[in-house]
From TrEMBL:
This is GB1/RHD3-type G domain-containing protein. Belongs to the TRAFAC class dynamin-like GTPase superfamily. GB1/RHD3 GTPase family. SUPFAM superfamilies: Interferon-induced guanylate-binding protein 1 (GBP1), C-terminal domain (SSF48340), P-loop containing nucleoside triphosphate hydrolases (SSF52540). Coiled coil: none annotated. Keywords: GTP-binding, Hydrolase, Nucleotide-binding. GO terms for molecular function: GTP binding; GTPase activity. It comes from Amblyomma maculatum (Gulf Coast tick). Residues 93-205 form the GB1/RHD3-type G domain.
């Protein structure tokens, strides 16, 4: 036997039919004949080429298991390429496609990838609250896929460490997202139950950071780019998958229409720092999946769920997802030309090196961006308090001349009020408070000088 690939059957007729095919193939294999077997698990057409060749020409036969290609450092701040495991990528001949999945930890990414590969036991799934996947993993045996165009390629599935885990920094999340995005030819963002504003915000921030990271990576002294211009900056298509989705969309919207409406509404509300995923990724679609099982024991640990345990709705929507991915699947390219496993290996090394050398450090994190906005807003609002107090003084005097001692006294009182309020707004943020104090001081000094000069002129006139 050459390839030990398990296929799920959805009814007894299909099961019998596939069993007969397999017997015929193994018989041909035993006879030393070259054979091509066509199957369609989950509507994804896979082409397996079997021939009586030596094991050295089939390097993935013994790797039908997940392997870790990038792991975190002990302090979980840097990423390390696994030199032994990454050899599996270099040995892939011909065009390569990569489907990567990202998302929050314990959102079902690994289970989703196992389902897309047609495996009950695949990437690690755990019932505990601890994150199961660390770094970046690939399935060691790429699937041989024939595209609708007739092109054949090796399909790699990547599983990644989840975002927002305890004791993991946002900068580390950004590294995982950036590498997974730029190495994939198709990216899946996985979420659970619903798409909320916080998740859109976080994904848009990660996308913005990845854009700058891609530029820094391209400008670095990387070995992968034999020429300066290549499509490293090009983001792959993004498919947002919402698992455990039991709601209904508005006015019979498709999931993609629903997602686009949320994105457009978000952009209109955020004009001052507008960034949209619709402007970043080549395409942006959404697909929903029903609850995979109904028994609590299975939902707690889906690694124990067999095909017969899955709900009919989930199977139908999962199959539709596989079909959708197959229809849009394309090889990873460089300058428009498909790359091989060796080139993909080189790209992965470039991205990991760039992530570790600080290419992401200069991009503001979500927290620092929030603090900056809070600081600027606080300084502006406190300046407005001062302006309102001084305007009230002028209105009290019918916009006429004011004795200088009264003018200065009100200035001092309004200035004190503004700085007291600023201190309250930025309590616990000493660096931001220092910067905002300087900003507010300049604003109030200029405002006071202009108003006092105008008041002197009024005094002279009267």
């Amino acid at each position: 036997m050459c390839w030990q690939q398990k296929f799920r059957c959805y009814d007894s007729h299909q099961c019998h039919e596939r069993s007969e095919r397999m017997r015929a193939i193994w018989a041909m294999r035993a006879a030393g004949l070259k054979c091509v077997a066509l199957f369609a698990p989950f509507a994804l057409v896979l082409v397996f080429l079997c021939s009586p060749v030596t094991a050295s020409l089939q390097p993935f036969t013994s790797n039908d298991a997940p392997i870790q290609i990038v792991k975190p450092s002990d302090d979980h701040k840097k990423l390390i390429v696994d030199e032994e495991n990454i050899k599996a990528i270099s040995q892939i001949k011909g065009p390569v496609a990569v489907i990567g999945v990202v998302g929050k930890f314990h959102s079902g990414k690994s289970f989703l990838m196992n389902q897309l590969m047609g495996k009950t036991k695949g990437f690690g799934i755990g019932p505990s609250v601890r994150p199961e996947t660390m770094g970046i993993w690939m399935w060691g045996e790429p699937l041989k896929v024939k595209l609708p165009s007739g092109q054949q390629l090796s399909l790699i599935f990547l599983d990644t460490e989840g975002f927002a885990a305890t004791n993991v920094s946002e900068n580390y999340d950004a590294k995982i997202f950036a590498i997974a995005t730029l190495i994939s030819s198709h990216l899946i963002y996985n979420s659970v139950k619903i798409i909320d504003q916080a998740e859109i915000d976080y994904l848009e921030l990660l996308a913005r950071r990845t854009q700058l990271f891609a530029l820094k990576s391209q400008l670095s002294k990387a070995k992968w780019n034999g020429d300066y211009l290549h499509d490293l900056l090009s983001f792959p298509p993004l498919l947002w998958v919402v698992q455990d989705f039991v709601q209904t969309t508005v006015d019979n919207e498709t999931p993609t229409q629903w997602l686009h409406r949320l994105m457009e509404a978000h952009s209109r509300e955020s004009e001052e720092y507008k960034i949209s995923l619709l402007d970043v990724f080549k395409s942006l679609e959404c697909h929903t999946l029903f609850i995979p099982a109904v028994r609590r024991t299975l939902l707690t640990d889906l690694s124990q769920a067999s095909e017969e345990d899955l709900t009919a709705e989930y199977i139908e929507e999962r199959n539709a997802l596989s079909k959708k991915l197959h229809e849009v699947l394309v090889p990873k390219t460089k300058n428009g030309k498909p790359i091989t496993g060796a080139e993909l290996n080189g790209l992965l090394r470039v991205l990991v090196d760039a992530a570790n050398d600080g290419s992401l450090a200069d991009v503001p994190s979500r927290w620092s961006a929030f603090v900056d906005r809070l600081m600027n807003s606080a300084a502006e609002d406190c300046a407005q308090i001062y302006i309102s107090e001084m305007n009230a003084l002028q209105e009290k005097h019918n916009n006429g001349p004011i004795k200088d001692d009264i003018f200065v006294a009100r200035h001092t009182e309004a200035e004190k009020m503004s700085f007291t309020l600023l201190k309250q707004l930025l309590h616990g943020l000493p660096d931001a408070l220092d910067t905002a104090n300087n900003q507010l001081t300049k604003t109030l000094d200029n405002e006071f000088a202009l108003r006092r000069e105008m008041n002197f002129k009024k005094v002279k006139l009267f």
